[in-house]
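Figure S7 source data.
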Amino acid sequence: MSPTILVTGGAGFIGSHTCVALAAAGYAPLVLDNFCNSDVRVFERLARIIGSAPRFVEGDVRDRALLDRLFAEQPIAGVIHFAGLKSVGESVSDPLAYYDNNVHGSLVLAAAMEAASVHTLIFSSSATVYGATDRLPIGEGEALQPTNPYGHSKQMVEQALADLQRSDPRWRITLLRYFNPVGAHESGLIGEHPHGKPNNLMPYVSQVAVGLRDKLAVHGGDYPTPDGTGVRDYVHVMDLAEGHVAALRHAERQAGLATLNLGTGRGTSVLEVVKAFERASGRSIAYEIGPRRTGDVPSNWADPALAQATLGWRAQRGIDQMCADSWRWQQANPRGYES
Ligand code: NAD
Ligand code: WQD
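Tokens for the predicted WQD complex:
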């Protein structure tokens, strides 16, 4: 019998790829998603990759009665909690939506798990909790000083879950701080398709390559970095997905709280991403260097050593594969799952 893992937000970008990794590792993902930022057609694609579609329930993670029913009816061994909102800019203009969805949602879920005696939880945190720091690479012990409501919401959930674990040693909680997730499954069947104009670099670059947008605005060319553009730790979404499987395996071995960076430990500049995407796609990417974006830091990249020591996990895929896989998805699905 494959252990059932409840995957909240499992229809989304990282969640859908994690369903693939879970199925490959012998788990049965059960998705709970309200589709506020995803498309139900992802399940047809997952069926083509996995062989059968993961089971899914349409609903909200804040719906306690629904969660109680799910835990009562299904033999859920653990939970991976992706469901939440993730736009930094939107969190500034609508903070209550972020505290409600991300913080309240996580508390409702944890309370339902406690009531059902399910104690294994993997939480999607973010490198955004570190805020601005000039000490690189960033280790998990770095001070947390997020600079926006989205980041505060992640920090609050981390704190609540750490306190919960301290209150009851049966909990097996892993807080995963992702750096910059990009790429797509190598099949090109699933990937990221933001609604409207992308905020993030990789989807923007791939939309320029496919002809949906004219040119990339590079946010700042005067940073103290080798080429003047911002440097980030891009991590392939399938590496992240496999990191979640490694975290589940770890939780099966050991109770407690683990807080881990998931990144590659390598920084790549905006212009290096543009060049790698040009190589992968064979297209030229028009860009223009403009002003810095408010709130951006010059550089950040992870120290991934603790994840390697704890989980035996390290990122395997480099920037060329991230771009090649993003391009395969983008080219085959220029309008996402509508294509
Ligand atoms: P995504 O928006 O593609 O996926 C989130 C999924 O959760 C979507 O399918 C959405 O419909 C669902 N959802 C949102 N609120 C819900 C609710 N209340 N109930 C049920 N379902 C709900 O985002 P993603 O990129 O896959 O991110 C997944 C998680 O990882 C998020 O918590 C995000 O904050 C975190 N994270 C993402 C990044 C990134 O850059 N993508 C980086 C660090 C952390
Ligand atoms: C990367 C680099 C930009 C767009 C964000 C969130 C973070 C996390 C990951 C969720 C920067 C530059 C970007 C563009 C550009 N998400 N850029 N032109 O800002 O590192 O992180 O996503 O947790 O919380 O803040 O990622 O992809 O937006 O930017 O020049 O059109 O690309 O300035 O240097 P970021 P990003």
